[in-house]
Each structure stands twice: as structure tokens, then as C-alpha cells.
User: Which sequence fits this backbone?
């Protein structure tokens, strides 16, 4: 059995899959934490639009930082 060095095409699917799994886990964790806090406070409340915009901007910043890791 010989160990072949990774080729140019080998690493891309693994990186994309790893990123997807990390995103999935973080999304599930965020949903779980939101549900727990909502349950403790008597049910889900309306999330203000400003908070959603802040969350979206922070998420975009995080994705940009992850993309810059390749530089």
C-alpha cells in the first residue's frame, strides 16, 4: 500500500466539507441556545430587526476572515 501525496483536486472537497460541517454545528448550537433561552423566558419573542442586521454583519465578517486564511 503506497501513500500518495495529495493532488491539487484532493483538498478542495475536504475543505468545503469541513467548512460545511463547522457551519452546521455552529448553526445547530446557535438554534439550541436560542430555543433554551426562549423556553426559560416563557417562549420565543420577536427579535428586533437591528439585532438581526448586527448578526448578519458579524457573520459576513467571520466568513471574510475565514476566506482570508488562504492568503
Assistant:
Amino acid at each position: 500500500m503506497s501513500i500518495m501525496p495529495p493532488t491539487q483536486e484532493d483538498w478542495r472537497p475536504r475543505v468545503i466539507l469541513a467548512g460545511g460541517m463547522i457551519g452546521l454545528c455552529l448553526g445547530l448550537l446557535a438554534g439550541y441556545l436560542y430555543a433554551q433561552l426562549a423556553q426559560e423566558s416563557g417562549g420565543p419573542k420577536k427579535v428586533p430587526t437591528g439585532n438581526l442586521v448586527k448578526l448578519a454583519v458579524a457573520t459576513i465578517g467571520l466568513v471574510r476572515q475565514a476566506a482570508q486564511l488562504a492568503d
